[in-house]
Amino acid sequence: MKNNIKKTRGASTIIWAAFLVIISALAATMLFSYLSQFNTLLKTGFNSVKNKLYANAGIDYAIWRDAKCGLNPLGSYTLNLDTDNNGTNETTVVVSAISTGGSGYTITSTANGKTSVATYDNGIMSYN
Amino acid sequence: MKLLKDFKGMNLFEVIIVLLIALIMIKAGMVFNEPANKLIDKSLKRFNALKLAESQINDLRYRANTEFSAAGGVLDQSIIDHTATLTDILPGYTLIYNVYAKDLADDGVNGDVDYKTIIVKCTYPGNNVLKVTGVVFEK
After folding, report:
1. What's the predicted TM-score (pTM) here?
2. Which terminus of chain A, N or C, has less C-beta within 10 A?
3. ipTM (interface predicted TM)
4. Looking at beta carbons, which residues of chain B come within 8 Å of A50?
5. Do B132 and A50 count as a contact with CB atoms less than 8 A apart?
6. Nearest alpha-carbon partner for B90 in B59, B45, B131, B55
Protein backbone atom coordinates (compact mmCIF):
# COMPACT_ATOMS: atom_id res chain seq x y z
CA MET A 1 0.00 0.00 0.00
CA LYS A 2 2.78 2.41 1.10
CA ASN A 3 4.84 1.51 -2.02
CA ASN A 4 1.82 2.08 -4.26
CA ILE A 5 1.36 5.60 -2.80
CA LYS A 6 5.08 6.36 -3.40
CA LYS A 7 4.85 5.09 -7.00
CA THR A 8 1.76 7.21 -7.61
CA ARG A 9 3.53 10.29 -6.20
CA GLY A 10 6.62 9.58 -8.33
CA ALA A 11 4.51 9.20 -11.44
CA SER A 12 2.62 12.38 -10.59
CA THR A 13 5.88 14.32 -10.25
CA ILE A 14 7.11 13.03 -13.61
CA ILE A 15 3.80 13.90 -15.26
CA TRP A 16 3.94 17.42 -13.79
CA ALA A 17 7.56 17.82 -14.87
CA ALA A 18 6.73 16.65 -18.38
CA PHE A 19 3.73 18.98 -18.46
CA LEU A 20 5.85 21.95 -17.39
CA VAL A 21 8.53 21.14 -19.96
CA ILE A 22 5.90 20.86 -22.73
CA ILE A 23 4.27 24.14 -21.66
CA SER A 24 7.63 25.97 -21.62
CA ALA A 25 8.55 24.51 -25.02
CA LEU A 26 5.19 25.65 -26.41
CA ALA A 27 5.64 29.09 -24.88
CA ALA A 28 9.11 29.39 -26.44
CA THR A 29 7.77 28.29 -29.84
CA MET A 30 4.94 30.81 -29.61
CA LEU A 31 7.33 33.56 -28.56
CA PHE A 32 9.63 32.95 -31.53
CA SER A 33 6.63 32.78 -33.83
CA TYR A 34 5.37 36.12 -32.50
CA LEU A 35 8.86 37.62 -32.84
CA SER A 36 8.92 36.63 -36.49
CA GLN A 37 5.46 38.12 -37.03
CA PHE A 38 6.46 41.25 -35.13
CA ASN A 39 9.53 41.60 -37.35
CA THR A 40 7.40 41.26 -40.49
CA LEU A 41 4.94 43.81 -39.14
CA LEU A 42 7.75 46.27 -38.47
CA LYS A 43 9.22 45.85 -41.94
CA THR A 44 5.78 46.41 -43.47
CA GLY A 45 5.32 49.51 -41.32
CA PHE A 46 8.69 50.96 -42.25
CA ASN A 47 8.14 50.34 -45.96
CA SER A 48 4.68 51.86 -45.65
CA VAL A 49 6.14 55.13 -44.32
CA LYS A 50 8.79 55.19 -47.08
CA ASN A 51 6.20 54.47 -49.80
CA LYS A 52 3.93 57.16 -48.40
CA LEU A 53 6.76 59.66 -48.94
CA TYR A 54 7.10 58.51 -52.55
CA ALA A 55 3.33 58.76 -53.03
CA ASN A 56 3.43 62.30 -51.63
CA ALA A 57 6.13 63.09 -54.21
CA GLY A 58 3.59 62.07 -56.87
CA ILE A 59 1.16 64.67 -55.55
CA ASP A 60 3.86 67.35 -55.73
CA TYR A 61 4.76 66.15 -59.23
CA ALA A 62 1.19 66.66 -60.45
CA ILE A 63 1.12 70.20 -59.06
CA TRP A 64 4.57 70.97 -60.49
CA ARG A 65 3.44 69.82 -63.96
CA ASP A 66 0.48 72.14 -63.74
CA ALA A 67 2.18 75.15 -62.16
CA LYS A 68 5.61 75.05 -63.79
CA CYS A 69 5.04 73.29 -67.11
CA GLY A 70 1.52 74.42 -67.89
CA LEU A 71 0.57 70.83 -68.63
CA ASN A 72 -2.94 69.62 -68.10
CA PRO A 73 -2.84 68.01 -64.66
CA LEU A 74 -5.83 65.80 -65.45
CA GLY A 75 -5.16 62.26 -66.60
CA SER A 76 -2.63 59.61 -65.64
CA TYR A 77 1.14 59.84 -65.66
CA THR A 78 4.11 58.31 -63.89
CA LEU A 79 7.11 59.56 -62.00
CA ASN A 80 10.18 57.34 -61.88
CA LEU A 81 12.31 57.78 -58.80
CA ASP A 82 15.94 56.85 -58.28
CA THR A 83 15.59 56.50 -54.52
CA ASP A 84 19.23 55.66 -53.76
CA ASN A 85 20.77 57.88 -56.44
CA ASN A 86 22.58 55.00 -58.14
CA GLY A 87 21.41 55.94 -61.62
CA THR A 88 18.62 53.38 -61.74
CA ASN A 89 14.97 54.09 -61.07
CA GLU A 90 13.73 51.78 -58.33
CA THR A 91 10.26 53.13 -57.75
CA THR A 92 7.50 54.13 -60.11
CA VAL A 93 4.85 56.45 -58.76
CA VAL A 94 1.55 56.27 -60.61
CA VAL A 95 -0.38 59.52 -60.52
CA SER A 96 -3.87 60.23 -61.73
CA ALA A 97 -5.87 63.41 -61.43
CA ILE A 98 -9.57 64.04 -61.97
CA SER A 99 -11.46 67.30 -62.00
CA THR A 100 -13.53 68.24 -58.96
CA GLY A 101 -15.94 70.07 -61.24
CA GLY A 102 -14.56 73.59 -60.74
CA SER A 103 -10.97 74.73 -61.11
CA GLY A 104 -9.66 72.15 -58.70
CA TYR A 105 -8.68 68.56 -59.15
CA THR A 106 -8.20 65.51 -57.01
CA ILE A 107 -4.85 63.76 -57.27
CA THR A 108 -4.37 60.12 -56.43
CA SER A 109 -0.78 58.97 -56.21
CA THR A 110 0.31 55.39 -55.60
CA ALA A 111 3.80 54.09 -54.90
CA ASN A 112 4.37 50.38 -54.22
CA GLY A 113 0.79 49.95 -53.09
CA LYS A 114 0.71 52.98 -50.79
CA THR A 115 -1.67 55.74 -51.85
CA SER A 116 -1.89 59.44 -51.12
CA VAL A 117 -4.92 61.46 -52.13
CA ALA A 118 -5.04 65.26 -52.20
CA THR A 119 -7.21 67.97 -53.63
CA TYR A 120 -5.64 71.02 -55.22
CA ASP A 121 -7.67 74.13 -55.83
CA ASN A 122 -6.49 77.73 -56.36
CA GLY A 123 -3.05 77.08 -54.92
CA ILE A 124 -4.36 75.33 -51.86
CA MET A 125 -3.60 71.69 -51.37
CA SER A 126 -5.45 69.57 -48.86
CA TYR A 127 -4.73 65.95 -48.16
CA ASN A 128 -7.74 63.70 -47.92
CA MET B 1 11.62 21.70 6.15
CA LYS B 2 8.28 20.47 7.43
CA LEU B 3 6.62 23.09 5.32
CA LEU B 4 8.47 21.82 2.29
CA LYS B 5 7.53 18.28 3.11
CA ASP B 6 3.93 19.29 3.47
CA PHE B 7 4.03 21.08 0.10
CA LYS B 8 1.28 19.33 -1.84
CA GLY B 9 2.10 16.17 0.00
CA MET B 10 5.44 15.75 -1.78
CA ASN B 11 8.55 14.37 -0.18
CA LEU B 12 11.79 16.37 -0.08
CA PHE B 13 13.19 14.78 -3.25
CA GLU B 14 10.05 15.61 -5.20
CA VAL B 15 10.07 19.19 -3.92
CA ILE B 16 13.72 19.58 -4.99
CA ILE B 17 12.87 18.23 -8.46
CA VAL B 18 9.96 20.66 -8.81
CA LEU B 19 12.09 23.58 -7.62
CA LEU B 20 14.85 22.62 -10.07
CA ILE B 21 12.33 22.51 -12.92
CA ALA B 22 10.98 25.89 -11.83
CA LEU B 23 14.50 27.35 -11.82
CA ILE B 24 15.22 25.89 -15.27
CA MET B 25 11.95 27.37 -16.56
CA ILE B 26 12.75 30.80 -15.12
CA LYS B 27 16.22 30.69 -16.71
CA ALA B 28 14.73 29.49 -20.00
CA GLY B 29 12.19 32.29 -19.84
CA MET B 30 14.97 34.82 -19.37
CA VAL B 31 16.92 33.34 -22.29
CA PHE B 32 13.85 33.32 -24.56
CA ASN B 33 12.85 36.81 -23.45
CA GLU B 34 16.22 38.36 -24.25
CA PRO B 35 15.90 38.36 -28.07
CA ALA B 36 12.37 39.75 -27.73
CA ASN B 37 13.59 42.60 -25.53
CA LYS B 38 16.49 43.31 -27.87
CA LEU B 39 14.21 43.32 -30.91
CA ILE B 40 11.66 45.62 -29.29
CA ASP B 41 14.39 47.99 -28.09
CA LYS B 42 16.06 48.11 -31.51
CA SER B 43 12.71 48.54 -33.24
CA LEU B 44 11.74 51.47 -31.05
CA LYS B 45 15.04 53.19 -31.81
CA ARG B 46 14.63 52.48 -35.51
CA PHE B 47 11.09 53.82 -35.37
CA ASN B 48 12.32 57.04 -33.74
CA ALA B 49 14.96 57.34 -36.49
CA LEU B 50 12.28 56.82 -39.14
CA LYS B 51 10.04 59.53 -37.68
CA LEU B 52 12.99 61.93 -37.46
CA ALA B 53 13.93 61.30 -41.10
CA GLU B 54 10.31 61.63 -42.21
CA SER B 55 9.98 64.87 -40.28
CA GLN B 56 13.15 66.18 -41.93
CA ILE B 57 11.84 65.38 -45.41
CA ASN B 58 8.48 67.01 -44.75
CA ASP B 59 10.24 70.06 -43.31
CA LEU B 60 12.23 70.48 -46.55
CA ARG B 61 9.21 69.74 -48.70
CA TYR B 62 7.25 72.70 -47.38
CA ARG B 63 10.03 75.23 -47.49
CA ALA B 64 9.84 78.29 -49.74
CA ASN B 65 11.02 78.07 -53.34
CA THR B 66 13.87 80.49 -52.62
CA GLU B 67 15.38 77.77 -50.49
CA PHE B 68 15.01 75.36 -53.39
CA SER B 69 16.91 77.45 -55.89
CA ALA B 70 18.94 80.15 -54.16
CA ALA B 71 22.69 79.62 -54.00
CA GLY B 72 23.66 78.59 -50.51
CA GLY B 73 20.05 77.76 -49.77
CA VAL B 74 19.05 74.89 -47.61
CA LEU B 75 18.61 72.62 -50.61
CA ASP B 76 21.80 73.58 -52.43
CA GLN B 77 24.31 72.05 -50.10
CA SER B 78 25.40 68.52 -50.74
CA ILE B 79 25.49 67.42 -47.12
CA ILE B 80 23.90 69.11 -44.19
CA ASP B 81 24.24 67.99 -40.62
CA HIS B 82 20.89 68.98 -39.25
CA THR B 83 21.41 67.46 -35.82
CA ALA B 84 22.34 70.73 -34.17
CA THR B 85 19.34 72.59 -35.58
CA LEU B 86 16.77 70.16 -34.26
CA THR B 87 16.36 71.10 -30.64
CA ASP B 88 14.14 68.15 -29.85
CA ILE B 89 16.38 65.50 -31.39
CA LEU B 90 16.85 62.57 -29.06
CA PRO B 91 20.26 61.93 -27.48
CA GLY B 92 22.27 59.43 -29.48
CA TYR B 93 20.57 60.30 -32.78
CA THR B 94 22.15 62.26 -35.62
CA LEU B 95 20.51 63.40 -38.81
CA ILE B 96 22.21 64.34 -42.06
CA TYR B 97 20.94 64.52 -45.60
CA ASN B 98 22.34 64.53 -49.10
CA VAL B 99 20.72 66.56 -51.85
CA TYR B 100 20.73 65.42 -55.48
CA ALA B 101 19.43 67.65 -58.26
CA LYS B 102 17.14 66.01 -60.84
CA ASP B 103 15.81 67.06 -64.21
CA LEU B 104 12.52 66.08 -65.79
CA ALA B 105 11.65 66.29 -69.48
CA ASP B 106 8.08 67.52 -68.86
CA ASP B 107 9.05 71.21 -68.93
CA GLY B 108 10.95 70.84 -72.21
CA VAL B 109 14.16 72.21 -70.68
CA ASN B 110 17.18 69.96 -70.47
CA GLY B 111 19.75 70.32 -67.74
CA ASP B 112 17.73 72.41 -65.33
CA VAL B 113 16.75 71.35 -61.82
CA ASP B 114 13.12 70.38 -61.46
CA TYR B 115 13.19 68.46 -58.24
CA LYS B 116 15.68 67.30 -55.67
CA THR B 117 16.05 63.90 -54.15
CA ILE B 118 16.83 64.08 -50.47
CA ILE B 119 18.45 61.04 -48.90
CA VAL B 120 18.25 61.37 -45.15
CA LYS B 121 20.57 59.25 -43.03
CA CYS B 122 19.59 58.96 -39.42
CA THR B 123 22.11 57.36 -37.10
CA TYR B 124 20.57 55.90 -33.99
CA PRO B 125 21.99 54.25 -30.86
CA GLY B 126 23.97 51.11 -31.54
CA ASN B 127 25.72 52.81 -34.47
CA ASN B 128 22.88 51.84 -36.78
CA VAL B 129 21.91 53.90 -39.82
CA LEU B 130 18.49 54.26 -41.38
CA LYS B 131 18.17 55.78 -44.86
CA VAL B 132 14.96 57.39 -46.03
CA THR B 133 14.46 59.07 -49.39
CA GLY B 134 12.19 61.99 -50.06
CA VAL B 135 11.55 64.32 -52.96
CA VAL B 136 11.24 68.10 -53.00
CA PHE B 137 9.79 69.74 -56.11
CA GLU B 138 10.40 73.19 -57.44
CA LYS B 139 7.37 75.30 -56.59
Report:
1. 0.79
2. N
3. 0.77
4. 132-133
5. yes
6. B45
